[in-house]
Write a structure and sequence with these properties.
Helix content: 25-40%
Number of helices: 12
Strand order of the largest sheet: 1-2-3-4-6-5-7-8-11
Strand content: 15-25%
Number of strands: 11
Structural class: alpha/beta
Shape: elongated
């Protein structure tokens, strides 16, 4: 079991698959690429190719064959095969609740161009539906789309990608890898748990493996903390830089270094009560009683009857709260929207129905919230089948991630390493 490699890297959400193999000299031709148009059936999986074109080198991109289409009439995909192919394939994950094919997504995770530049063939999908990354209306009353989103799209996509390579390059890949972060990280762990023979290597980062806990239990706690009953923000986002500075002053040196980084957030217990505003003098350098209470609840994490049921936000993440947690005063935080999306799955609420989350009791709703994610979570700790298959798993997670909480990921890593 200990041959499964789990690596912690202190980055927010970026990783790359690296290979030292030399490029194959066999080049794809524009003719073989363009003749991919049409319907196919690969190993029992139907695929339609609606676009197939040759793209000449430009900027830092190599020449490649670009293919778009649909798998099993449901899963949208884009695949790219470089002229100098290294005989390997990368399958990219997708973030949030997926819902879009983004062939040119920047970065190195949930994206394909970084792999393409290194000679890999690469494919990305929408996981079987279309929508905003926080939206779940596609899932209401549609268990099949939820099954695909959970991870069932991956073996279908691998089958198609391998057979496309066989068709235009006369060779299936020697190795197949997966790379994903956030929900893509969950997908990587899901693959290791449910499809142990599917990938030779998996790079999974910042994984929301415990979707029912992180988006559900924590999500409800978050919404009830960051929004008042009129849905206005409780914490003034303009004060977050001041909060970040105060926390840094208290916790920077916990690791013995004054370097502007909180390297041990688990040791940081911010004391902020002295920053409470006078009732007649609320400024950008003090917090109201309501704000301090909300900030404390975010650090504290979801509690039921005095017991913590999910991790809290790590100190040192405050500079990211306006984006992911509290909103900026005009727009909601992405995490707030995603929490609403997950809870709509729990209660099967279409968009026209209002979710009054302030009237939900976490203790009473906990079982239902967890049950709704039973087939979506990727929390199985026995990865022995993946290890036996020779698979390698690289896991990374940012210690200042305010959205997908690192303490839960640490707990999972320990559980995996302790499983025999």
């Amino acid at each position: 079991m200990r041959s499964v490699t789990l690596v912690w890297i202190i980055f927010f959400c970026a990783a790359a698959l690296a290979e030292g193999a030399e490029y194959a000299l066999n080049e794809a031709s524009s003719v073989s690429c363009e003749t991919m148009l049409g319907p196919y059936t690969f190993d029992g999986t139907d695929v339609s190719v609606s676009l197939s074109s040759w793209v000449e080198p430009q900027h830092d991109m190599p020449a490649y064959c670009h293919i778009e289409g649909e798998i099993a009439e449901t899963i949208g995909f884009a695949m790219r095969v470089p002229a100098h192919w290294n005989h390997k394939l990368v399958v990219a994950g997708c973030g949030g609740f997926c819902g879009a094919v983004i062939a040119d997504k920047p970065g190195m995770s949930n994206s394909i161009n970084a792999a393409l530049k290194d000679g890999f063939a690469a494919i990305t999908t929408d996981s079987g539906h279309q929508g905003k990354s926080w939206d779940t209306q596609w899932a209401i009353g549609n268990p099949e789309l939820l099954r695909l989103f959970a991870g069932a799209w991956m073996p279908l996509t691998v089958t198609v990608a391998q057979n496309v390579l066989q068709t235009i390059r006369q060779k299936k890949p020697e190795n197949t890898y997966f790379s994903g972060c956030s929900n893509g990280g969950r997908l990587g762990l899901y693959a290791a748990q449910h499809y142990p023979d599917l990938f030779d290597g998996i790079a999974a980062g910042g994984a929301i493996m415990d979707l029912s806990g992180n988006a559900g239990l924590h999500g409800l706690w978050l919404l009830q903390t960051t929004r008042d009953k009129s849905l206005q923000p409780v914490i003034d986002a303009q004060k977050l830089p001041f909060l970040a500075k105060q926390v840094l002053v208290q916790c920077d040196a916990l690791d013995g270094l004054h370097d502007g980084i909180i390297n041990q957030p688990q040791l940081c217990k911010p004391k902020l009560s002295h920053l409470q505003c006078d009732t007649e003098n609320a400024t950008d350098t003090c917090f109201t009683k309501s704000e301090l209470n909300a900030i404390e609840r975010l650090y504290q994490g979801a509690h039921v009857d005095g017991k913590q049921v999910f991790a809290g936000l790590p100190p040192g993440s405050e500079h990211l709260w306006a984006i992911w947690v509290t909103g900026d005063g005009e727009s909601w935080g992405w995490g707030e929207l995603a929490a609403l999306g997950y809870l709509r799955i729990v209660y099967q609420l279409p968009p026209e129905q209002t979710l009054d989350f302030h009237h939900l009791d976490l203790e009473q709703e906990m079982a239902r919230i967890l049950a709704a994610g039973e087939n979506l979570d990727a929390t199985q700790t026995d990865l022995s089948d993946f290890a036996k298959s020779g698979g390698k798993l690289l896991y990374f997670h940012g210690l200042s991630d305010p959205l997908i909480l690192p303490e839960r990921a640490k707990q999972y890593a320990v559980e995996v390493l302790n499983t025999t």
